[in-house]
Amino acid sequence: MPSAPKVTNVEPLPASEAKWIEFQKISWSDQEGKGRIWEAAARKTRGQSGVDAVAISTIIRHPSRPPSTIIILQYRPPVDAICVEFPAGLIDAKETPSEASVRELHEETGYKGKLTYISPTIVSDPGMITANMQLATVEVNLKEGDKEPEQALEDGEYIERVIVPLDELFQRLEKYSEEGKRVDARLWHWAAGLHFAKTML
């Protein structure tokens, strides 16, 4: 039986050893012309598209079940917790965000679908990192009797997929948080938008 993941040590990372990220010292001029310095982290893997990653909001349609979405659970060492997230991943060097969204959804969840929307390039934590992404919507249409597909995970990937009816998503994320899991901000904001649109407008 697999053991529970955990952080065993934390130490400074020399720049010469960093494979995925680097620190940047950004010199800039403010609105009064005053020179300033900003510290940031940056990905080292950005390809031709100019976009680092995609996250995928999935809409599953089934003849006899309510519209649902797919979320994933995976351990993230920086927060030392199981995180609740959209399926997501980095964009390969010569890949478009649209291509990456369909590929990543299949790899992480096993499902194949049709891309129906992809967002402009957006940022998650612009005060700290240069990372950007696009949010894709992929529609999956199922028939009665369709079996749950097999994930196509890479070695070392441990991802649990969860199918959640859209009407239950907000409450499910609240429950995960109460259990000590960490909910990704993009997923939370998406779910909260759906919830607030139904309850507050």
What does this molecule look like?
Helix content is 19%, strand content 36%. With 201 residues, the protein is of the alpha+beta class. The chain has a single domain, classed as Nucleoside Triphosphate Pyrophosphohydrolase (Alpha-Beta Complex), CATH 3.90.79. Strands 3, 4, 5, 6, 7, 8, 9, 10 and 11 form a nine-stranded mixed beta sheet that branches. Strands 1-2 form a two-stranded antiparallel ribbon. Strand 8 (122-123) and strand 9 (132-141) form a beta hairpin. The longest helix has 15 residues, at 185-199. The relative contact order is 0.19.
Chart the SSEs and their pairings.
Elements (H helix, E strand, L loop, with lengths): L20 E9 L5 E9 L9 E10 L2 E12 L4 E5 L2 E3 L6 H13 L4 E5 L3 E2 L8 E10 L18 E6 L3 H10 L3 E2 L1 H15 L2
Parallel strand pairs: 3-9, 5-11
Antiparallel strand pairs: 1-2, 3-4, 3-6, 4-5, 4-10, 7-9, 8-9
Architecture, CATH level 2? Alpha-Beta Complex
Strand content: 35-45%
Q: Helix count, per DSSP?
A: 3
Structurally, the number of domains stands at 1
Main beta-sheet annotation: 9 strands, mixed
* The first-level CATH class name: Alpha Beta
Which homologous superfamily in CATH is the superfamily? Nucleoside Triphosphate Pyrophosphohydrolase
Structural class computed from helices and strand pairing: alpha+beta
Total count of strands: 11
Low-pLDDT runs of 5+ residues are none
Classify the fold: give the CATH topology.
Nucleoside Triphosphate Pyrophosphohydrolase
Radius of gyration: 19 Å
**Dominant shape:** globular
Oligomer: single chain
Please bin the fraction of helical residues: 10-25%
Distance N to C terminus: 48 Å
User: What is the H-and-E element order?
Assistant: EEEEEEHEEEEHEH
Mean pLDDT, as a whole number?
A: 95
